[in-house]
Amino acid sequence: MRRLALAAALLLGLVLAAPVHAAGSGGASLPSAGGGTELGQAAPEAPRPQSPRPVLRAFSVSGSRVRFRIDAPARRIRVRLVLRRPHTRRATATIRLGPRATKRRHAVRLKTSRIPRGRYVLTISARDGRGRALRSARGVRAARQLTVTRPRPRAFRFPLVGPFSYGGAGARFGAPRPGHVHQGQDIIAPAGTPVVAPRAGTVRVVAYQAGGAGHYIVLRDSGGNRDYVFMHLTTGSIRVRVGQGVATGQRLGDVGTTGASSGPHLHFEVWVGGWFDGGSPVDPLPLLKSWE
């Protein structure tokens, strides 16, 4: 009996000491419950790297000129400028610059003629093709101060817009003519060259003289002391009428060769005290050269 009890105890110990295996044929043991990938599940995907947003590298304002640079993966990016009064959110003007090349400096001159004078905050913004908004690099501000002013109007303008020459001695004031002397300065220019008012004033005469001036205009200076005369204008080119007020630089007509003329030119006269109205002609050349 003692031998049987000892054999039974040895057999039981061997059974308890044997490792536990999964059901069925032998193989790997069951995973523990303390973490790791569960059976039947795929490993989680690694996060996808995000494309960088466009970066404002430089932004400055000097007068009406704006300079900026934007870096981005895309070659071009749409840019706009927004003008606001200080301490307000409402935009006074939005200037769309359209697609601009990235990774290079741009210089843009703002047209502020229709914007009221005063101080503004100018902000730059942009979005790439995927809708990613612009961010500023360290130390770069996306908003700058801008002051809108109006340039002083020019007091005088040269009476032609285009290439010209003063000709030779025969084109000068005082040059001899059959029965009289030349009372103006001939300005040689191609036919069709715009003729403009050298000074704001009122149109006194619009007429035609076949044997002399051809189509011509007389303009009274706004100061009331001088008359300017424009002769040999192209037929059908005159754009003003008697009594009309004109601004400095306003187009009056075109250079032609009507009347007693040997080629396209503007015969220009300046009268002090009125044209054939108690006044007298003066040499226009010094004035013309000062207006160039």
Overview in brief:
The chain has 292 residues and is mainly beta. It has helices at residues 2-17, 285-291, and strands at 55-62, 65-71, 76-84, 91-101, 105-109, 118-127, 135-136, 143-148, 176-177, 180-181, 185-188, 194-196, 201-209, 214-221, 226-233, 245-246, 251-254, 265-272, 280-282.
Please, could you describe this protein's structure?
It contains two helices and 19 strands. By secondary structure, it is mainly beta. It has two domains: 55-148, Immunoglobulin-like (Sandwich), CATH 2.60.40; 169-291, Glucose Permease (Domain IIA) (Distorted Sandwich), CATH 2.70.70. Strands 11, 13, 14, 15, 16, 18 and 19 form a seven-stranded antiparallel sheet that branches.
Number of helices: 2
Basic shape: elongated
CATH fold node name of the largest domain: Glucose Permease (Domain IIA)
How much of the sequence is in beta strands? 35-45%
Helix content: under 10%
The CATH class designation of the largest domain is: Mainly Beta
Give me the count of strands.
19
Give the name of the CATH superfamily of the largest domain.
Answer: Glucose Permease (Domain IIA)
CATH architecture of the largest domain, please?
Distorted Sandwich
Cα separation of the termini: 139 Å
Main beta sheet: 7 strands, antiparallel
Report the uncertain regions: 20-34
Count of separate structural domains:
2
Task: Determine the mean pLDDT.
Answer: 86
Alpha-beta content class = mainly beta
- Give me the Rg, rounded: 44 Å
H and E string: HEEEEEEEEEEEEEEEEEEEH
